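Fold this complex.
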Amino acid sequence: MTEPGRLTVRKTYKLYIGGAFPRSESGRSYPVTSSKGDFLANAALASRKDARDAVIAARKAFPGWSGATAYNRGQILYRIAEMLEGRRAQFADEVAAADGVSARKAGELVDAAVDRLVWYAGWSDKIGAIRGSANPVAGPYLNLSTAEPVGVVAVAAPPEGPLLGLISVIAPVIVTGNTCVVVASERAPLPAVTLAEALATSDLPGGVVNLLTGRLGELAPWLASHMDVNALDLTGCPDDLALSCEQAAAENLKRVFRPSGKPDWLADPGTARLTAFLETKTVWHPIGV
Amino acid sequence: MSTLTTSPAEIASSNASLRAFLHGLPGVDRVGADQRAAMLGTRSIKTTAKAQAIDLAISMVDLTTLEGADTPGKVRALCAKAVRPDPGDPSVPKVAAVCVYPDLVERAVDALAGSGVKVASVATAFPSGRSFLDVKVADTRQAVQAGADEIDMVIDRGAFLAGDYRKVYDEIVAIRQACARDAASGGEDAHLKVILETGELATYDNVRRASWLAMLAGADFIKTSTGKVSPAATLPVTMVMLEAVRDFRDRTGRVVGVKPAGGIRTTKDAIKHLVLVNETAGDDWLTPSLFRLGASSLLNDLLMQRQKMTTGRYAGPDYFTLD
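Structure:
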């Protein structure tokens, strides 16, 4: 609500790459409408070059992020949850507009997203305990397996659940030390851009999460075939696109996560997403006799 | 521009006449130069033209390793890469030269024998150039004896900035003589590249004067920087130097090459430089014998872009050598 005589300050929705908020390299944008068809804003329409830049930013951020202690990563995820909580009203408005749900329901969805972050934040220093092991071997060795992040993960965020769904795909990827390039929901990208603003102010190093808004069909094939992407999360891909992405991903043996059926974001997420983007490192250490 | 009526030796006969000549050169409009270089940098080079530009840029690279930690093994690896930049693709052209410190020239010469890739050596108390002339001459002579095809010398920036142009001139002439190979070995004289270290020259006017001074003293190439000082090769500085070689040819008939070095890391940067060459000096200079790119990490980016054009997929650095 603006006071009479005051100019409205409109928000420009941009991309989030390497900790900065650039416009699309292509200069394109597309109109975003509410669930009722009302115009909401123009969002940046990312091009394949933006995707390429995002991968470079994610790769650059990987050594620092994966090298941080699990405790530190957990703290930063918790910090993101704090930032989200502080913007609760803004997110609730955006979710309500995008999904056409009541203000109360939208508030519940935002709360669920914050809780989801806190839940994943707790996993940072515990995932090693369930995915690592001390292996019994027939020899004078101490044999240990530990979980390691795969690297850069390209994520197709789900079209539904503009905030809860988005958080539910990003948090499990980054909590274990991966960095990611996320293509936000094409229909409802505005909460993703607002999330980027929260990420930028939450001690998350630039480049760990890169958010692109635009057409998944245009961006996904380039990310799927990119030789410097280590894994794909095809949650938001329609079946035909997912199939061609899986084929392209085979070129450099990317890990591909493609859930079956429509995910229920309010259900208990389990550890499937956490463990999908981990490699196992096994160390043989001679035992002194 | 009119032909040069006086000979370089006459111009250099005294500090006063050198000063009169160099300060008589037209000044550089800094804002205009920056703007023109930026404008040329926005040219869009795509598809087949880009493929051609990438191959040309690869063939112009002086693959460089100038670290205190250089080992014989690293030089050998770099030489292998120079000859066959992408082991998986024989259609990639070889680079122009490998550039090393003088004591590693012999290793590079061994590794590159018969390949057609030249060996360049920095000399003259690189990178500062702060030593005695005897030492610099000896440094150069030993590098030439070890088999260097090209010598990258640094000018005495201190003398230049103090206005002692004669000293800079004499030093270049002395190093040029040290580049001569004795008749017994029968080889060609080593080519002399003169590094101006433009990052320390402060103004574009000085860059233009230093370029002319080096060319009058007999440089075969003028080179922007050592790569140890920032800013190194910037587009406007390269443009001023390209204008200098163009004007020098118009006035004397002698053709001098240009080598930007330092800070050129991406294919985009390299292509911007090629556009600049074409638009400033002309396409006569678009050959490895007259234009070089001094770089180390640039080659991998060129190879990645090249692979992207042949496979249609974005390439990743994991598939290229670390050096």
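The first strand of chain A starts at residue 29 and ends at 33.
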